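Bug #77: duplicate submission created two jobs. Keeping one. Sequence:
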Amino acid sequence: MTRQLKLVFRVLYVLIAFNIGAAQQLQLKIMSTNAVETTIIDSIGYSNTFEDYKTLKTEVQFLKKQLTQQGFIEAQILKISEDRPLVVAQVSLGRKYESVQLYADKSLFEFLELEDVKDLDNTPYYMVELTALENFLNTLTNFLTAKSYPFASVALKNISPTGTSMLSADLVVLTKEPRQLHGVEIKGYEKFPRPFIKHYLGIKTNTPFDLKTIQSKTDALDQLSFTKQLRPAEVLFTQDTTRVYLYLEKTKSNRFDGFLGFGSDETTGSLELNGYLNLNLVNNLNFGETFRLNYRSDENDLKTFNTQLTLPYLFKTPLGSELELNIFKKDTTFTTAEQAANLFYQINPKQKVFLGYRSSQSNALNLEDTNDLIDYKTSSYEIKYTYQKRTTQNLLFPIKSALEIRLSTANRKTTSTQTKQSLFLVKGSKRINLNSRNSFYMQFHAQAIESETYLLNELIRFGGINSIRGFEENSINASRLGVLASEYRYQLSPTLYIHSIIDAAYFEAPSLSNQKLYGFGFGFGLLTDAGLLRFNLANGKTERQNFKFSESKVHLSITASF
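Kept job's structure:
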């Protein structure tokens, strides 16, 4: 019984303490001796419940600042009572001023690039609404900072009324010495390729200093796969120098990608195995270089070997180079070797333009070749444009959008003829986020060869996991094609997503026209410690063909970072 009484007393104690604490909250009422001014105060609004007297007085001061910003520059706090719990603050608003005339030398107005400067008795002035005065002064400060005056100050002096609702003041600007950027220091990743500072980020030394502009430029580091910014850029001012510090970290950017494909032979019904290996090495020499190697072995004894080397900012110039070697072999029918060399200029962190030369040579291996499978050599000049936008926040989908456009004019030579050709290629992809879990992905590929005659061994080859899914890899030949691949993606967790497959394609070949293909299926992606594991099951059909589940294609791939 005694224990129960103690428990009751403790509960009562807590309730009484709570009620006393609640009763000690202070209530604030701000008013003026003038009913009109009290209405204005109430229209602005203020907090009226506080835990302590100090916070209450801060709220009264904040209201006074708001009144000043609205033109009541004569506003005063007359009295704050000491009564509890209701505290009454008496405020006098005074006259409301609508605008202020800022006077200064004409040369100062020209330096500040202010328009609509007026003259009064040959004295220039600039009119500003009082409600916009604070933003106006902040804008001038930012303007001066961008003009390399980070320590500039802006002030108003000799403020006085000139009418019932007008003020006048002298605009005073102290710029001090302008600052130049003398150097950029890298912390954390000291071997970061220096040409990227000047040409990629556009930060140059011995130029006017503006920290906000520099910090906005460093946002472009998010578009680089081999580094990340640990914190915003900082600046160190000394008496004679100005140095910016970038805090970077080298990230894992090498990629190893491969997949296995399973399908059944249409003739024998036996299981077929195919796949590819894709190695992507980025910035291993701390030069910003990229080396790609791709080897593919497809159904029908198709073998592909591709390499590409990208070297940015050659000899510390804005120009870079891209070199390619591609070899394709179709069983014992023919081989094709292609080389390309391009110079490129990086317009900005997302865009590049290329100008280059490409040559290819194909040899028929079967001595009983037909008229459309013969040896040839092709040389072409091409221009190319690329765009890529990365999103570092999403590990499953690091590329938000991409675009590649390539135009070429070519000359094809055989033992008996020369033929002028035109080639174009457009590839693009886009990820549209519907919300945090749902997204829609589209990939478009259009390519064509315009020629008077076509050879079988020069046609475009497509089909498979990277074009229209549900068909054998590189099993379709075309002189022109268009492919639209789409996925609806649902992200179950930060490391797992499932998706649909809805693909459609249109192509033409020398002996075929208006051919339509469709691919349907589903898949998933799982981010593991080893890398990104992807699984696709897709079934492809032509326009006049029925679906056969036995002809479905299963693709497994894993992309590992190291």
